């Protein structure tokens, strides 16, 4: 009797497991990308003239930016919101209605990104996460984190272009911390490089691996 019950339960467990894995596989991203190695990252920082001084200036910027981060996000969101071709990324593909819940959820992750960039702990976890953020701008993973129906992909040209408005609007915020002119300039240069660095890392899923 025990055996008769035991076998079907085993079979049931096997089916549940199989279904779970199939379900996961349908959500998991199938992609061929691997975050760059430490050596490749070290070379990239050299190409960008990104040094330990930049890390120091980024860390200096944290205390300056943290009390102002919501206002900074208002400026960046205002920029995206005032350009229909950018707002389209947060909007339903056919109704064209912006998804306010999606905007709010991404804003929280944007906020975390500002502070993590200022922390400048550019280690293996951080490098792996940059590939993930790139995938989230790309059709491979866009919309999946929040389970939304919105534009399926952000074109690479806009990803790169946003480097300029994002960094240029940052400068007045860096000047709010009572630092010297040289320090504000140091923080600004470090942020310009850091946003370019992340944009380069995020562009990986857009490029054929052998070309990246
Ligand atoms: C330098 C350029 C850019 C920066 C620094 C930036 C920053 C970010 C950050 C930090 C996130 C959250 C990532 C996460 O999930 O942890 C994000 C997601 C997102 N960004 Fe950008 N972004 C840039 C360019 C763009 C452009 C050009 C658009 C188009 C309007 C855009 C639209 C989005 C959207 C829709 C998401 C949510 C993606 C998802 O579904 O998960 N971003 N961005």
Q: How would you describe what is shown here?
A:
This protein is mainly α. It folds into two domains: 1-30; 32-206, Globins (Globin-like, Orthogonal Bundle), CATH 1.10.490.10. Helix content is 66%, strand content 0%. The chain has helices at residues 2-27, 38-47, 52-65, 69-81, 84-87, 100-119, 124-137, 156-161, 163-168, 171-174, 181-202. Helix 3 (52-65) packs across helix 11 and helix 4 crosses helix 6. The model is unreliable at 1-28 (pLDDT under 50). Residues 80, 86, 89-90, 106, 109-110, 113, 133, 136-137, 142-143, 145-146, 154, 158-159, 162-163, 166, 195, 199 line the site of protoporphyrin IX containing FE (HEM).
Can I get a quick summary?
This protein is an all-alpha fold.
From the N-terminal CA to the C-terminal CA, the straight-line distance is: 62 Å
What is the tally of helical segments?
11
Strand content: under 5%
Mean pLDDT: 89
Helix share bin: 55-70%
Low-confidence stretches: 1-28
CATH topology of the largest domain: Globin-like
Number of strands: 0
As a whole number of angstroms, the C-alpha radius of gyration is 21 Å
What is the name of the CATH class of the largest domain?
A: Mainly Alpha
Order of H and E elements: HHHHHHHHHHH
| Global outline | globular
Ligand identities: protoporphyrin IX containing FE
Number of domains: 2
By helix and strand content, what is the structural category?
mainly alpha
For the record, the CATH architecture of the largest domain stands as Orthogonal Bundle
Largest sheet: none
CATH homologous superfamily annotation of the largest domain:
Globins
């Amino acid at each position: 009797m025990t055996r008769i019950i035991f076998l079907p339960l085993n079979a049931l467990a096997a089916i549940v497991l199989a279904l779970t894995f199939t379900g996961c596989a349908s959500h998991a991203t199938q992609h061929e990308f691997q975050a760059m190695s430490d050596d490749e990252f070290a070379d990239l920082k050299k190409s960008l003239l990104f040094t330990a001084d930049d890390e120091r200036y980024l860390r200096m910027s944290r205390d300056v930016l943290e009390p102002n981060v919501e206002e900074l996000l208002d400026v960046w969101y205002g920029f995206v919101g005032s350009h229909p071709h950018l707002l389209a990324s947060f909007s339903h593909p056919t109704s064209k209605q912006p998804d306010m819940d999606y905007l709010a959820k991404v804003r929280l992750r944007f906020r975390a990104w500002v502070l993590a960039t200022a922390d400048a702990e550019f280690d293996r976890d951080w490098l792996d996460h940059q590939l993930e953020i790139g995938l989230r701008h790309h059709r491979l993973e866009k919309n999946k984190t929040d389970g939304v129906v919105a534009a399926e992909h952000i074109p690479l040209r806009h990803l790169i272009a946003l480097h300029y408005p994002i960094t240029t609007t940052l400068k007045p915020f860096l000047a709010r911390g009572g630092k010297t002119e040289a320090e504000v300039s140091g923080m600004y240069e470090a942020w310009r490089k850091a946003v370019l660095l992340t944009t380069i890392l995020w562009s990986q899923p857009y490029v054929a691996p052998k070309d990246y």
